[in-house]
Amino acid sequence: LDFIAGLVSLAGSFMWIKQNNREIPVFQLKMHGQEKPLLKMVKSALRIKEKIYEYKKESRHYVLLLIRRQSTLEKVIIPSFERLLRGPKRARFKKWRNKFFRMRLKLIKK
């Protein structure tokens, strides 16, 4: 997992997107298209089922692992990177994680 955490530090994002007037937590790992085998290895190592998307347009070519499924975020992504990330990415992760759990509590209370 240390190697994957390094990749996430460089090419990963913990973010929120608007969908149907709701904020949805998202984890994304985006790499150049030639790195698709590496992204497949990450997916396999984390034992996740989410699809790897591939985009090719003009001179741009990249692959993207996009995780929106709440259960995968909570049971795989958050525990996997809880103690491994360092520096600015760790601070962004913690902020994202804290908001994730606050939003979960709001849903439970409804």
Structure commentary:
The chain is built from four helices and four strands. A hairpin with a 2-residue loop joins strand 1 and strand 2. The protein has a four-stranded antiparallel β-sheet with strand order 1-2-4-3. It has 110 residues and is α+β, with helices and mostly antiparallel strands. The model has no long low-confidence stretch (mean pLDDT 91). The chain is globular and about 45 Å long.
Question: Topology of this protein?
Answer:
Elements: H1 2-11, E1 12-19, E2 22-32, H2 36-46, E3 52-57, E4 60-67, H3 70-81, H4 87-109
Antiparallel strand pairs: 1-2, 2-4, 3-4
List keywords for this structure.
alpha+beta, globular, four-stranded antiparallel beta sheet, 110 residues
Name the beta content range.
25-35%
Roughly what is the average pLDDT, rounded to an integer? 91
SS field, number of helical segments: 4
Morphology: globular
The gist of it:
This protein is 51% helix and 30% strand.
